[in-house]
What does this fold into?
Amino acid sequence: MTIRPILIHPDPRLKRVAEPVAAITPELRRLADDMLETMYDAPGIGLAAPQIGVGARLIVMDCARKEGEAPRPMTLFNPEVVWASEERSVYEEGCLSIPEQYADVERPAEVRVRWLDPEGRVAEEHFTGLWATCVQHEIDHLNGRLFIDYLSPLRRQLITRKMEKLKRDRARG
Ligand code: NI
It folds into this structure.
C-alpha cells in the first residue's frame, strides 16, 4: 500500500463532481487500500478520492475511535444518501484538505446510505452520530463540496487565505 499526497484547498480538483465507478477493478481496490493507508497515516477518519486527485466516486472511512474499540475500515463505491432524518445535529468538522481548521456544521443527524462494497455487492447502512456526519462530509467531496462551503463567505475567505499561505510556505520548503 502507498501513502498518497493529499490535495490542499484551494485546488480545482477538489471542486469537481466525481464520476460514478462503472466496475470495481483490482486497480480501484488497490486505490481504496491506498486511501485507507493515507487516511490512517494522516491521521483522519475519512477520505474521498478527489482529495488525492482521483475523480471517482469512492470514499473510505473509519470513525471507530473510542477507547478499546476495534478499527472498522469501510470502503464505499458510489455512495448515495437514500434517506436523511429531519432531526439535525451540529459537529465541529475538519478536513485533511484544510489542515488545522475546524468549524461547526449542521447536517441531518442520521442518514441511510447505499453503496457498492469492494466485491461489487450492494450494501446499505443506517449511520448515526459521528459516522453520519463523516459519511455526509465525504459524499460532499464527491460533489465538489467542502465543509467550509457551509460557512459564511467571510469565514470561508479567511480560511482559504490561510490555506493559500500554507501552500506558499510549503512550496518554499
Ligand atoms: Ni474532508
The domain at 12-172 is CATH 3.90.45.10 (Peptide Deformylase).
